[in-house]
Write a structure and sequence with these properties.
Helix 3 runs antiparallel to helix 11, helix 5 crosses helix 13 and helix 7 runs antiparallel to helix 13. By secondary structure, this protein is mainly alpha-helical. The chain is built from 15 helices and no strands. The mean pLDDT is 85.
């Protein structure tokens, strides 16, 4: 039990470095990881189930206590990131695969990694968790619609199939985890600490699989995708922070909103690209690279905000 807790704490603390290490290994030894691509949707479902298991009644209560901040934060997320993705794809004149991949990332909800980064930044964690929950629950509607509207210039998008995919890999696992926790409270409490570990491991496997399966393609266009991803992520964090200041959010809430807007559930983007756009294999790359990068940039941003908060 203690050993598992130590492993859990270690992985969650150094998740950014672990993702980078596994990505590098997968790039140089692709055959050992490429098989994981077949199970991308399953891994993501497991990660989302783990998220659902960690949702407490107090988290849901918090949504009702500060609706103003959550609504504004989610609106910013579903405006800044999708539109920025479309603009970047247009300005950089990306091919259809990469344009689709960037837009998929931009149209996804917030990821659970943002909650950890917000904690490190000494931001408003309850607000971050609430935004993640709400944006995730909105994803079955907003993600397919936004992708349909924004990616239509490059590829044909099936609204129904995307809706079906998001429901199956996001909504159903999250709700299942939430319901099981409420039905088996006492039994679940004993293993609850393992849920973040399971979710983190699933995300690591998703990213490693995509990197391994696309190693040769990354070598060909990886630098361009990295530049695009960095710009997209930076715009999200900066845009979220500026907008939060315009709405006069206090320091900790502004920190949470900036992180939540800039850090996406890129695992969902990878899953959607894999399941719905098999004819566009490169569409998985932006999501995979975003998964690596946003943990790095989020950690850097968190360090800056935490130091500044101590001076206030």
């Amino acid at each position: 039990m203690n050993l598992l807790k130590l492993i859990n704490n270690f992985i969650l603390k150094y998740i950014s470095f672990i993702i980078i290490i596994f990505s590098i290994i997968a790039f140089f030894i692709p055959d050992n990881f490429s098989w994981m691509v077949k199970y991308t949707a399953i891994f993501l479902g497991i990660a989302m189930f783990g998220m659902g298991m960690t949702i407490k009644p107090s988290d849901l209560k918090n949504i009702l206590l500060q609706p103003k901040y959550i609504v504004i934060g989610c609106v910013l997320q579903y405006i800044i990131m999708p539109l920025t993705a479309w603009l970047i794809a247009y300005i950089f004149n990306l091919n259809s695969d990469l344009a689709l991949g960037v837009i998929l990332v931009g149209c996804c909800p917030g990821g659970t990694a943002s909650n950890v980064i917000t904690h490190i930044a000494d931001g408003d964690v309850p607000l971050s968790v609430s935004m993640t929950i709400v944006s995730t629950l909105l994803a079955p509607i907003l993600t397919p619609v936004l992708v349909f509207l924004l990616a239509g210039k490059w590829v044909e998008v099936s609204l129904f199939l995307m809706f079906k995919s998001v429901v199956s890999v996001i909504l159903i696992p999250v709700l299942a985890g939430l319901i099981i926790r409420q039905l088996l409270k006492k039994q679940i409490e004993k293993i609850l600490y393992l849920m973040p570990l399971i979710s983190a491991t699933s995300i690591i496997l998703i990213i490693s699989g995509i990197i391994g399966a696309n190693a040769s393609k990354i070598a060909a266009c990886g630098l361009l995708v990295l530049v695009v991803v960095i710009l997209h992520n930076f715009t999200g964090i900066a845009g979220g922070l500026i907008a939060a200041k315009i709405f006069k959010f206090e320091y900790k809430k502004a920190t949470a909103v900036a992180i939540e807007v800039g850090m996406q559930n890129s695992g969902l983007a990878v899953s959607l690209a894999t399941v719905n756009f098999a004819m566009n294999p490169l569409a998985t790359l932006p999501g995979a690279i975003f998964s690596v990068w946003h943990n790095i940039s989020g950690s850097i941003f968190a360090g800056i905000r935490k130091k500044k908060n101590k001076k206030i």
